[in-house]
Amino acid sequence: MSVTLLIEQLINGLQLGTMLFLMASGLTLVFGVMGLINLAHGSFYMVGAYVTALATASTGSFLLGLAAGVLAAAAAGAIVELLVIRRLYRRQHLDQVLATFALILIFSEGTRWLFGSSPLWLSPPEALAGSVALPGGSRYPVYRLVIIAVGVVVAAGLYLLIAHTRLGMRIRAGESDREMIGALGVNIRRLYTLVFALGAALAGLAGSLVGALQSVQVGMGEPVLILAFVVIVIGGIGSIKGALLGALLVGLVDTLGRVFLPALFGQFMAPSDAAGAGTALAAMLIYILMAVILAFKPKGLFAAHD
Amino acid sequence: MNKLTRAGLGLLMTTAVATAQAEEVRIGMITTLSGGGSHLGVDVRDGFMLAIDQADRGDIEVLIQDDARRPDLAKTLSNEFMQRDEVDIMTGIIWSNLAMAVVPSVVRQGTFYLSPNAGPSALAGKMCHENYFNVAYQNDNLHGAMGAWMREQGYEAPILMAPNYPAGTDALAGFKHLYEGEVIDEIYTQLGQTDYAAEIARIRASDADSLFFFLPGGMGISFMKQWENSGVEMPVFGAAFSLDETIIKAVGSAAIGAMNTSQWAYDLENAANQAFVEGFREAYERTPTLYAAQGYDTARLILSALEKAHPSDKDAFREALREADFDSVRGKFRFGPNHHPIQDIHVREVVEGEDGEPTNRLVGLAVEDIQDVYAEQCRM
Amino acid sequence: MTRLHPTTTPAAERPAGTNRWLDRAHLVQGGLLTLMLLAPVAAHLLGEVYYVNLASRIALVAMAAVGLNLAIGYGGMISFGHAAYFGLGGYVSGVSAYHAFDGSLVMGLPGSDDMLVIWLAAALLCGLLALVIGAISLRTSGVYFIMITLAFAQMAYYFANSWPDYGGEDGLPIYLRNSLPGLDTNHALSFFLVCFTGLVFSLALTSRLMKSRFGAALSMARLNETRLATAGISPFPIRLVAFVISAMITGLAGALYADLNGFVSPSMLSWHLSGELMVIVILGGVGRLYGPLAGAILFVLMETLLGGLTEYWKFFLGLVLLGVVLFARQGVIGWLAGRERHE
């Protein structure tokens, strides 16, 4: 394998990682502040993508569509928090799992009821459709680089938000001691709604961006949700830093595994068997990674708290 | 929704009067109407019901159930149809793995099963059965035809890609069987994979002169978008599963130029097809996919056989089905010895339609009278 | 196993029952079991084979959930990966029948279509798998435990999906239902009685287990780990044994489920199935002996009945589940039989 191809695959892993970070950061934030397991996080990803697709088709502008998608996901998050989620904070994890599992069903089938079974059309904007030259002569799609850039901006923004703003201070206080921030006179109910909506908005952003490269269809959030959970567990639940590093680790391991394992197996197997066995192992790879990490670090790499 | 309610009401009423009308025909349809990939099931159902409605016979009742793409649920529903509703004929299943779960026991117990889509190799070969008819294709047909056509067009170094599951490996095997040349490489992806950047980089770095891929449903949509976005210049070939009308609408302009094989096209010129396409557009306000055409043909085959015999007379009805005495929307149609079609496979190209949206256009004939290779393993 | 301190047995804590067979909880439990037994018998007499098979399905799903309930409800180990054992049990059934059918060997052993052999193998293999998975997973807790058990189940799922020998995603048909000496397993009611026996056996086992000193230690490990530790008992082996038994019950249910369907496929290993079993346990009532049975009856009936009414049935299923979790906090059994007492 040439160095150029290796560089390209590394960027691919990075790009998958940033996309996972957008999903995982909201998930881990909600868990860190409110102690809530939210299986319905993937539904906000789907809402973001659907609204972006519909708004882009009717306005003709991807940017407007993107804004509409993120806002819609945030709004959906706020509404769900007000109606359902806030009744679950004091409940066991099990109740949260059942309730948010029910929300997945409601969101998925509700979406299908409203918009039908067929996938929707959504493409990257013309301006970002091309590709740029990589050192070594290969080319790389601009749009994927933009996703990486958005991921970097979001990571920096979240860092600034949490480390340097009043809201961030409250979020940190909420993470370390839920009773105390109430005593400080903070309106906890509003804070929780805000944090949940922020998490939903991040998922919606991921869905909107990636929807241009993938199939916008019912159930699109589920595979990403599982990956995002893997990410936050590897990184340590509640830790944004952990989510970032976990996301990059999962992105790189998954991408490189898909590329190298079939080739590796090809060294000592027949080509068609090697492709099958290598792909099978590649599919299991991130779960193996997660099991190994948790076996040695039972609270992930950067646990904030349990 | 409407039809389901109607079927449900029909059920309530017929249980009351079933004894009075012994000659009534009851058809059970299990198909995928919810979750990922449900547009296939919806199309099969709509095509099927269009033919039933057009026939306007009072003595046919169709019961429809959603399998949510789960083998165990499909199995339960098939029990419900056979043991409670005592249907004469079953049909509808989209996916090979669901068909493998349901079909063998259904046909063994003496109920007819007509497949409007899934055509796994086992059911065409070793596990073939006299009560099982496939009205769509054996799964390999379209892939093999594309192999033959690409060979004929002079492509010398194709690279192949499919998900790592039985239908995927069968697809590539089917392609190679009729391509009969060396391929550059075979890439297997994960089932349900959504990101193809790593695979596209591998394809770009290879010395291939063309790409043949099999990624049905959402996987195909994701791949085509990312392929366009990557800027790789290489002709793309597939089977209609990866490039049906619904999929290419969702892919948009990125699909334009892709070639695909299909046993049917909406612009195929024959009277039956014109009636079908017009009727379908009128009834459902969209252009039919091949799945809708398969559902339509399945119903029309059943109708043609009902003219000759009632399913309770198993031998006569089976013989009537075998004769395939109906005007298929794909033109020529007959069954091989294993009750799978012997049919022409056409090549279509995705072009920009009159409304600016991509659509499939008939280009030519890939293979005439194709028959699957498993027929010789079939002992019926 | 570590010796238990005698004062931790719940028998000492149980209030002296006043005619305990007549209270509401026992009436409901007895009613559920009787219904479960009599409904299919009635269906059989009326010639409605479908409902007999539906009852078999409910019994097996309930049995799998009883296994999971031992881990979740009594042990406090929220496993999101019990599909791994359900599926493994199913594959033992399928693979064994496959090799018995064509007379070939599997890892040097002949296949068998005798259910007793299959059950033994399924229980042993599931126990072994759970021993390995549990030993690693129990180092973690809370959400980490949920996710690591999911990770192992996903590995099993992808493995089965891409392993061509036994059909991969297409699955493996069981042409002839496996046999049991002295019984016609193809007869719907006979097979139901086998499933029902399995369900009753798993309920009895769980009940006996939880009344023993082992059960007391398991409850203590869930409620107050420090108190258990002061009694000189390490919670780890207790939990591990409970996890293994839980997996074996679910695995046995899986083996029978494959026979019921005449088919096994990777979908039996998918995370959807793990989630579904979990939903059934919570729906019925976590940590209640009869919770899984109540949950399974309700869930399977909703699935089959709603599915016939509208193609958007999952939407309404979601609403019902949400309603249960928000308003019926003790699950269906809590709603039917009242708040939990020392069972």
What do these coordinates show?
The complex is a heterotrimer of chains A (306), B (380) and C (343). Chain A is an all-alpha fold. Chain A has one domain: Orthogonal Bundle (ABC transporter involved in vitamin B12 uptake, BtuC). Helices cover 74% and strands 2% of the residues of chain A. In chain A, a hairpin with a 5-residue loop joins strand 1 and strand 2 (139-141). The mean pLDDT of chain A is 89. Chain B has 380 residues and is an alpha/beta fold. Chain B has two domains: 2-137 and 268-335, Rossmann fold (3-Layer(aba) Sandwich), CATH 3.40.50; 140-262 and 344-377, Response regulator (Rossmann fold, 3-Layer(aba) Sandwich), CATH 3.40.50. Chain B is 43% helix and 19% strand. In chain B, strands 6, 7, 8, 9, 10, 11, 12 and 13 form an eight-stranded mixed β-sheet that branches. Chain B has a five-stranded parallel β-sheet with strand order 2-1-3-4-5, with helices on both faces. In chain B, helix 7 links the parallel strand 6 (158-163) and strand 7. In chain B, helix 9 (218-230) packs parallel to helix 10. The longest helix of chain B has 18 residues, at 38-55. Chain C has one domain (23-337). In chain C, the strands form two sheets. In chain C, strands 1-2 form a two-stranded antiparallel ribbon. A two-stranded antiparallel sheet of chain C has the order 3-4. Chain C is globular, with a radius of gyration of 20 Å. Chain C: Keywords: Cell membrane, Membrane, Transmembrane, Transmembrane helix. Chain C: This is Branched-chain amino acid ABC transporter permease. Chain C: Its main location: membrane.
